[in-house]
Amino acid sequence: MTLAPLVQGQLNIVSTCEAITPDSRHFLATRELSTQARWYQHWPHIDCGERLHAKAAVDLCRRVISEPYPTQLVYDSLHPAARGATPLLQSLISQCPGFIEIWGVCSGQFDPHYAGSLANTLLQPGQRLLYLYDPLQRLSGDPTPQLATLHYLIFSAQA
Q1: What are the φ/ψ torsions at residue 4 (nearest 5 degrees)?
Q2: Cα angle vertex 98, ends 95, 99, to 5°?
Q3: Cα–Cα–Cα angle for 13, 15, 21, rounded to 5 degrees
Q4: Among 12, 88, 128, 143, which lies 20 to 30 A Cα-Cα from 52?
Q5: Is a pLDDT exceeding 70 seen at residue 56?
Q6: Rounded to 5 degrees, what angle do the CA atoms 132, 138, 141 make?
Q7: Integer Cα distance of 11 and 24 in angstroms
Q8: Counting Cβ atoms within 10 Å, is residue 98 exposed (0-12), middle (13-18) or buried (19+)?
Q9: pLDDT tens across 6-50, in order?
């Protein structure tokens, strides 16, 4: 099988946020949790309507799955996911049905070689893979808008 990178791109986003009160929705209860600390939930300013993803990221996923190729998604974020076990990945699954497989990973940084290695492991001939790296920190003690670059790669596998 031959793996071919088809597209490499990036989406630049700015976050917006609101103050939240720490509770079980956001944190595991611990004795060390300071109730005096201020926390903020961040999301892309131009979002998908659910305060989770950049609209441009959802549009990219929809565009990729509209093509006539069986396509897998690897969503790489700061929050580890096990086959769709986070709200972030569940949101992409519900907004962009049509991927034949969806994988959640947490690599810690964008690395095209890592993405290529995953694609080489996961793809079968005739398939494509969209690798989307999302570095936005959703919970932060800082209300300053975040500037984040979402990187994406599309790979194709040929027999």
Answers
A1: -125, 125
A2: 100
A3: 155
A4: 128
A5: yes
A6: 145
A7: 32
A8: middle
A9: 999 999 999 999 998 766 555 544 445 555 578 888 999 988 888
pTM of the predicted protein model? 0.88
Question: What DSSP element (H or E) covers 4?
Answer: strand 2-20
Enumerate the β-bridge partners of residue 128: 71, 156
CA distances from 90 to 19, 81, 127, 129 (A): 24, 10, 22, 18
Contact partners, residue 141, CB within 8 Å, separation at least 6 = 37, 38, 39, 40
CB half-sphere exposure, 1, CA atoms < 13 A: 14
What phi, psi does 94 have (nearest 5°)? -75, -35
For residue 84, what pLDDT is reported?
53
